[in-house]
Amino acid sequence: MLDTGMTEAEAAEAWLKTFEAAARTPAALGALFLEDSYWRDVLGAGWEIRTLAGANTISAALASAEPLSVLALDPDRPAPARVTRAGTETIETFFSFRTAIGRGEGILRL
Are the C-beta atoms of 21 and 28 separated by less than 8 Å? Predict the structure, then answer.
């Protein structure tokens, strides 16, 4: 995702759009995550606080959870930027979302 020729904002928006479209399809969701990916859910897609690891685990859990929709970059937070986290260069951004029961915010690292 870092070498696509897109700006950081374009890459983040493309991922969010693809994620929203894949909401209930485990295979489509799984394609959005690396095997060493992590998803930290704090009451956003489910009614529990949990950390999920691995593309298959994440995609299976998200496919059966409350779907996130109306995903968008958060205009009140810093713009998407290239940063280094845990020794890995990544695009980091904040986003907002909705579910059937409320609104939430998240951080995305590509």
Answer: yes
SS3 at position 28: helix
Residue the block writes with tokens 């799984």? 30
Closest CA to 41 of 20, 17, 68, 23: 68
Q: What is the three-class DSSP state of 43?
A: coil
Q: Which residues pair with 37 in a beta bridge?
A: none
Query: Alpha-carbon distance 32 to 42, whole Å?
Result: 20
User: The pTM is what?
Assistant: 0.84
Beta strands 81-85 and 88-99, pairing class: antiparallel
pLDDT tens, 44-88?
666 778 898 999 998 888 888 878 888 899 999 999 999 998 898
